[in-house]
Amino acid sequence: MTQKQFDIDTLLAQAGNRDNNDQYHSVSTPIYLTSNFRHRDLEDAETFDPHQQYSYSRLSTPTRSVLQKTLAELEGGANAFAVSSGMAAIQLVFSLFNSGDEIVTSDDLYGGSFRYFDYLAEHYGIKFSKWNGQDYDELTKLVSANTKCVWLETPSNPTMKIIDIQKVSDIAHRANPNILVCVDNTFLTPVYQQPLREGADIVVHSATKYLSGHNDMLAGCVIAKSKEIADTLEFNFNTTGVTLDPFDSWLLLRSLKTLSVRMARHTSNAKYVAACLAKLPQVEKVLYPGVGGMISFYLKDMKQVDRLFKHLKIISFAESLGGIESLLTIPSLQTHSDMSKEARLKLGITDELLRLSTGLENPKDLVNDLTQALGD
Ligand SMILES: *Cc1c(COP(=O)(O)O)cnc(C)c1O
């Protein structure tokens, strides 16, 4: 594990400023819009070191290398891989597994993860079992010497259950030191949670969300704690070509610089909005983990849901999260629509449950918008 040398605020603000290898010493990392790099001569091609030099941009490209180095440092991993979306990041991790492998997942995940896991079970014979994310004795029973991976999201999506990563890692590694504990850290980001420092082996992000933070790009990343796992991932990454292009690599690196400032404001806004929501007569219950920008809440009456969406003036009725603009989602119809109704209801994903990604607007304006849209 790399030792933290500077505070995360400093790492973020300085991302790529000194190690971008630019011949003119540019402060911002340049973008190399090229698919390939020239070899000087035959000897140069023969002695080529893919970790020091560049040849073909799927394998490596300077802007992405700087981004990946930054991501690895932020999460405390040996190496990071920047890919084209969060789902591509999850797919890259699953390239480590084979037919018949047993995987335990927490039961309240991003809907697209379940869709992919169902596909893997059906077409590749990977065996999944679900854990409720709360009962650690049950987890002890679920993991065995045959388990290859424990996959979780915390806080869970959309019901905001908190899972103790250190406890899960201890239980999993006691059953079998080779179990890979994988955490989707999209909701809290390394500003609030660094799973590799709590015993996890792999972190993934949908960088489409907070890491990029502006509702304007798709990206994902995988960060591996050990060099051994990173090397296997690197082979699969280069071979399948899920890589992030130079422009988006630059955009993500640029966006990361403000991550800790954005997260602090997302949190203070969400705290304010969650407290105000809890006092509204139309609101049944608010789920807010106390940190980050995501709030889920239940309305008392389904009729209020349509009214709310129709009358919002600032908050957009749109899927996704983690950007500067506030977004409101109805998980039962949007992010979690592929789950069976029974499975959804078991988790508490009713038709009255809404998920707010609190943006960076003035929090009073957000509360006023919700209040006026709900009406009397
Ligand atoms: C959005 C999301 C994903 C998928 O990411 P994409 O960038 O949309 O492919 C995965 N996990 C979580 C928690 C997400 O919110």
Please tell me about this protein's structure.
One of its GO terms (cellular component) is cytoplasm. Its EC number is 2.5.1.-. Belongs to the trans-sulfuration enzymes family. This protein is α/β, with parallel strands linked by helices and 376 residues long. The protein has two domains: 8-256, Aspartate Aminotransferase, domain 2 (3-Layer(aba) Sandwich), CATH 3.40.640.10; 259-374, Aspartate Aminotransferase, domain 1 (Alpha-Beta Complex), CATH 3.90.1150.10. It has helices at 8-13, 42-46, 62-75, 86-94, 111-124, 136-142, 165-175, 189-192, 227-240, 246-256, 259-279, 302-311, 341-347, 363-374; strands at residues 79-83, 102-106, 127-131, 147-153, 180-184, 202-206, 220-224, 283-287, 294-299, 316-317, 327-329, 353-357. The strands form two sheets. The chain has a seven-stranded mixed beta sheet with strand order 1-7-6-5-4-2-3, with helices on both faces. Strand 4, helix 7 (165-175) and strand 5 form a beta-alpha-beta unit. It is globular. The structure holds pyridoxal-5'-phosphate. Pyridoxal-5'-phosphate (PLP) binds at residues 85-87, 110, 112, 153, 157, 184, 186, 206, 208-209, 218, 220.
